Every structure is written in C-alpha cells, then in structure tokens.
Amino acid sequence: MQIDFHYYATYCAAILAGYSHEESLTVCYSTQFVDCCTRTLIENIGGPQHAATTQLQLEMMEARTDLLGLQDITRIWASFHFLPRDLHADVKGSRAYQDKYRLICGPNGDLLVSTVNLAKGKSLQAVGLAMHVLADTWAHRYFAGTPSMINNTDYWFYELLPEGGVFKERQVVFRHNPGGKDDLETGTYINTPFQPSENSVMCLGHGRAGHLPDYSFMYYKYLPAWGNYEVTLKENPNDYYRAFCQMIYAMKCLRDEGASFEKERYDLEAAAPYEIEIRKILEKRQLDSSADWKAFGEKLSGKEIPEFDVEQYTEDYRTASEEDKDDTFLGKFILAALAQKSMVTNAIFKSGNLLAGYSVDFKTTGFAGIRDFMKLVIQNERERRKQ
User: Are 232 and 222 within 8 A, CB to CB?
Assistant: First the structure.
C-alpha cells in the first residue's frame, strides 16, 4: 500500500472508529511512518537500529545476502509489511521450501490477532503501526517478506479492466526502470528484473509484480511460483474495502478495554453510509488517491488533514535527553516497532522456522544480549509496576 491508504484512509477509519481528530492524526502518521523508518533515518536521529521498519533502495542494494543478512531482511519485511498468515501451513516440498511458503502474507492469520493485541493498552503510535501491518496483509497477500524465488511470477500476467459491466483482459508489460513511472494508459509497469538466485533481493516481496498490489483499483490475474504457476486472481478493490472495515473494527477493539479482536470480523455497519463513496475512491484508476481520501476524511471530521512530513518529529527525538526519548512521539513509535519485531520474530522462531533467525521472548526470558531490545524489558517492568 501507499501513502494514500496508509495515511489518509487510515485517518478516515480512525475517525469512524471514534478517535478524535488529533488522535486520528497520531494514528495515521504512525501508520505511514512504518514506510519511512529506515536505518538511515534512525541513525540520523540517534535511535536504536533494530527499530527500523523498512529499508531504502540503497540500503537494499548494499544489504548482505549471507545467512545473517537474509535473516535481518526477513525480520523487517515479515514483521511490518508481509505478516505471515500461517506459520504451520501444510505444504509439500523440502524443508527449505516449506519454511519460505509459511512466510507468505495473508489476512486473518493468528499473527494478525497477536499484532492487534500487542497494541492494546499501548500508545496511539502502537495502534498506527498495527494498522499498517493489518492493511498490508490484504494488499500484500500471496507474497512473502523474505528473498525467495517463491515470490516469482511468470510473464503471463493480465490486468482486468472493468468495461461495461464485464472485464477486458490486457497483458501487463513489465519493465525494470527504478526511476520510471507506471503508465496506466498503456499497461506498462515497473518491476524488479528476474534473477535466478534464490537469495536475490530482487525476489523480495511483490517486487516481481511491481506496484500492482499497492493500487486499490487493480484487478489482475497471474501465475505465482508458490502456486505451481496456476492462475491466481487478485481483486484489490474488494480486498482494500475489507481492509478499511477491518481497521475500523480493530481500532474500536483497541479503544474498548473489554473488547477482544477476532479474525474475519469487519465493521461494515460503520462504513455502510459511505460505502458508495469509499468504493468510488478505491476503484478510481489513478496512481495516487491521496487527494480523494483527504477530501473524504476532512468531510468526516470537519478538520484539515495536514500533509505527511517525515521530519515532523525527528528533531524532538534527536534533542531529547536519553531518559526522555521514550516519551517523545518517535520514542513511542520505536518502542512499538521493537515490540512488533520481537513478537513476530519470536513466533517464526518458535514455529521451527529459522529464516528470521534465533529469538527469545523478552517477557519471559528477559534481556538476551541485544541492547536495543533492553528498552522492551524496561517498558515491561514499568507496566508491571503500574498494575
């Protein structure tokens, strides 16, 4: 997904979930910041490196692809962008193939429940981070957050264009041009080039499918490697609408101390009065629907939604004293990021899968040698004292 959904649409969902304008801005800023919190940014503000939630293209080009390097990549992308749906999926093949298959992203998995519950009683930044992960389970379904040929697609890739109540098929033309733009008129899209190496970063996530999973209007069918190159249909408008309604439901659960988040539940009732308007935005063929979501959000709240500014809170964190950093806006986000990364990595490890490396449950084991995660132990102790 892109800034249009992660920032503006998340704001709309938060308003419909009962959050105030100011609370909604904190939530949606944190949701979008997941796509911005790189090691480069963290280094510039003096934060903990393990809190990185994404990687720049330059960082990916320089990333190691040995065992430790691949585990580092997987911890980031599986934790925040390609949350595994079923770590115990029953699939035939070698152990290596099974491990990678089980990291394939999809909605309504057990780890989604853990992700939402992890934000319960925490900061609004934690809520926003969880909404990013939730939304991406819909947009990024069928792709895994680890470099692997399992993410490969065949040249047979068709966009389905709505026309007069039916769909017209048009073969997608993919090109590798990092500085280029997708062309909706000609059906020419940018993707990563084919690499026969199993560990190439070009085979991470949905790189081989370009930005098609990130466009809410897109209908397409393709032949995924994980599905033995059999036809798979993706209907983004329907998936994005369910993601939107599930965010409303999830955020209502997080506001209500007695509520428990459950899979396969969506707040269709809250969205119903606006369904036609929302679906119109989702199905409009445009590379960026920020303006439409912004207008809708401002109509809902009667307040102005400022443009996202990645530098908005960096100076506050950079200049805060060491003991006060955790209480700043980005300090709260960093704590949420470390907790999410620790939880997902630990779940993958406990399933017997070592693609994300070794892990410990800090809540039961305590500090285990990774200095950055000591923050979680301290935070956990503070929470115990409050109870």
Answer: yes
